[in-house]
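Request:
You are asked to prepare a plain-text protein record giving the amino acid sequence and the backbone structure tokens, at your earliest convenience.
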Amino acid sequence: YFSCLLNKMNIRCTTPEDLMNMQHCNLLCLPENYQMKYYLYHGLSWPQLSYVAEDANKKIVGYVLAKMEEESEDDIHGHITSLAVKRTHRRLGLARKLMDQASRAMLENFGAKYVSLHVRVSNRAALNLYEKTLKFDKSEVEPKYYADGEDAFAMRKNLADFSMVETSQYDSEDETCLNIEPSLDKLSLGEKAT
């Protein structure tokens, strides 16, 4: 069932038309919510960094909202603002595929050295995903980071290793589970069907 469901998924770069549905997905999945102008800011400033996962009916079931940090030209890095996958589509590898796509775009378009994110210290599921699956490291605790006063772990992943990954492990015409935009063929992040 899951393999069949994954075969009908599409991961693609976000368009302005997606922003309302991304916001809706955010409201369903996360306690941190953003006004539409924040989605627009990301979409207009870094259109190549945010991605959506859509099902066979073109409904958005997940997204990653990302940006480049503008603090210093010596410390070029990207930041994951928000990652969400609807409960009905979790445990399919979509979060990893969305994160990999955004990270690769940061590296290839902007020369990012690493990607950062924040996660609630109490969010064990997300911490497990970021540390074990996506290989992020905790860099520090940011006290009272969230509006409700909860602390956050600041996390980061070095992208130098990411550039070493051969894209051939992701590219296979007849065994790829995800349909990726033709312009992103070399960035295809589908897993081999099992």
